[in-house]
Design goal:
Chain lengths: ~260, ~300
């Protein structure tokens, strides 16, 4: 991890309340991987006070640029949405661990719910040149949240909406149930999104006996493992795990789902 | 310029320290900042046995502040000595474990075990954590218990004993005097204030613990006022804590009577704040022709 000032390259809306921020990522700084995150101090004032964590949605070595996708839904992200190209960002990163694929895996099933999209876009880009089959499922409440297809250069996402206003009517896990179960052997499930969706992914992977990695979310203060504030319940060790430094990517079987 | 701070029989190189609970065991910030410039690292609280901590959620941001109920999650004294002290002692800066417990026996055992380590500069006695069901805060609100606990720890160690005070009392100077009477070498002033945030949709407190401890710039004027009051009630050094995020904040504490300060929540906002704070204090001393940091309190009008 490094603390540095990055320059905003672009910051534009990609769907209702969703933004994509692209910023400089000098090649002297450790390269971010899919599942990792950074923290941004969005203001020099004390409102909001804490840095905010955002998962990487991509990194392009040739452009010295990294990106995040964020949803405008509070004071910090409203301030972020107001920033323009050329402005500086106080960044600490890359933080946390990555989604990884064992050699025996032939297929990634990437499931994104809502703003969980960012890291899954990164997953599909990162693994596209490996000899892997990638299925990308994006779940959202209704069709205004559907993003432009240019975001997904390497795969075509399956869209699921809760109200059936576009794509498959149901959740991503409902959609998984339409597959022939033979597809799940040699597969790994990667998921990022709301807690109930992650829980659903975990239970599905348990039922069909294949691995599932989830990106957990919790309010963070330090982001570096010092404050113990961002803990989630775990079946291991002390019963708690820090999202920032033990994750944010966890084997779903290590989480105590409640 | 003399930045040294005398606490008991020992000397800190400079007055800018990092607060317990906000700096882990030091190694978490190793890659981000130069730890050797820190006056002292006050470690995450350590207890006799490991503690898992409270149920999540444990933290929530408030206006200019942070409410936390971590619950003294820590690895316990044995792992602290075997794993955490190895890194800490390699730094060359003062290491002050924050010692917590539920009974007097636990405090005494932890200090006895830590006495085996030459790398321990001194002890910050945590009698003020608001987030555990028993112990800690109960000690900190009763002057008789504070004097007795401090006195019994005094018999075990000659190293600096720093008692960390809670602001959640009617008169903090009474507790500070009790610590001084028990033989404390300094007091840390202040720990967090008890607070609560309620989720009006779920109609329940946001933190699983219900209440938490409030820190950050929101509490700075309270910390400054209490430092002012305590430093006039006792003759031992006062270490000012509460909402310091820049040199100007730290200077308020020093003028109020603090001999040293701790940056806590500020480190979360920007890990460079402790270093920038020290630089800003030096600049102020040069500009105002202050030769000695220990004379600071004389300059308030």
């Amino acid at each position: 991890m490094v603390q540095f000032y990055s320059t905003i390259l672009s910051n534009s809306s990609i769907a209702k309340d969703f933004y994509k921020l692209i910023f400089s990522w000098n090649n002297s700084i450790p390269v971010p991987g899919p599942g990792q995150f950074l923290t941004i101090r969005v203001t020099d004032t004390t409102v909001p006070l804490l840095r905010r964590p955002f998962a990487f949605s991509g990194y392009t070595d040739s452009l010295n640029a990294a990106s995040i996708i964020y949803q405008k839904r509070g004071i910090a992200t409203e301030l972020l949405a107001g920033k323009s190209p050329g402005e500086k960002l106080d960044i600490i990163g890359p933080l946390g661990n990555c989604f990884i694929v064992d050699t025996n895996i032939k297929r990634i099933i990437a499931i994104a719910g809502g703003i969980g999209l960012g890291p899954m876009v990164f997953v599909t880009e990162y693994f596209k040149n490996r000899d892997l089959d990638i299925i990308f499922i994006f779940g959202c409440r209704y069709k205004v949240y559907i993003l432009h297809s240019s975001l997904f250069s390497s795969v075509t996402p399956v869209i699921c909406t809760d109200n059936g206003s576009a794509g498959f009517h149901g959740t991503p896990v409902d959609y998984l149930r339409t597959f022939d179960k033979s597809i799940f052997s040699e597969s790994i499930l990667f998921a990022c999104g709301p807690h109930p969706m992650l829980n659903g992914c975990h239970e599905f992977a348990l039922e069909y006996n294949f691995p599932c990695m989830v990106s957990m979310e919790q309010i963070m203060a330090c982001g570096v493992g010092a404050c113990m504030g961002c803990c989630v319940k775990s079946v291991k060790d002390t019963g708690f795990a820090r999202v920032c430094s033990d994750g944010a990517i966890f084997n779903s079987r290590d989480i105590l789902w409640t | 310029m003399d930045l040294r701070v005398v606490i008991g029989k020992r000397v800190l190189n400079n007055p800018v320290c990092v607060a317990s609970g906000t700096f882990g065991y030091g190694s978490e910030y190793e890659k981000l900042i130069d730890l050797t410039n820190i006056g002292a690292i006050f470690t995450k609280a350590v207890t006799l046995n490991p503690r898992p901590g409270n149920e999540p959620p444990r933290i929530i941001e408030t206006p200019c502040g942070l409410l936390n109920a971590i619950g003294l999650a820590n690895v316990g004294i044995q792992r602290f000595l075997k794993e955490k002290m190895i890194f800490l002692k390699s730094l060359g800066c003062a290491v002050i474990p924050n010692v917590a417990g539920s009974t007097e026996h636990e405090y005494k055992e932890v200090v006895k075990i830590l006495e085996s380590s030459d790398s321990v500069f001194g002890y910050e006695i945590n009698i003020s954590c608001p987030n555990v069901k028993k112990g800690a805060l109960a000690f900190g609100t009763d002057p008789v218990m504070v004097e007795s606990l401090t006195g019994n720890l005094r018999k075990i160690t000659e190293k600096p004993l720093i008692v960390k005070l809670t602001p959640n009392v009617t008169d903090i100077s009474i507790i500070a005097k009790a610590a001084e009477n028990g033989g404390a070498d300094a007091v840390s002033c202040i720990n967090t204030l008890i607070g609560m945030v309620i989720d009006i949709k779920k109609r329940k407190p946001v933190l699983a613990n219900g209440t938490g401890g409030l820190s950050g710039p929101a509490i700075r004027p309270i910390g400054v006022a209490m430092t002012y009051k305590v430093s006039r009630a006792v003759s031992i050094p006062v270490i000012g804590i509460g909402g310091i995020i820049c040199a100007e904040d730290a200077l308020q504490y020093l003028l109020a009577g603090a001999s040293a300060i701790q940056v806590g929540t500020g480190t979360f906002i920007d890990p460079a704040i402790p270093g920038k704070t020290l630089d800003g204090i030096k600049d102020y001393c040069i500009k105002e022709q202050i030769e000695c940091i220990k004379d600071f309190h004389k300059y308030i009008k």
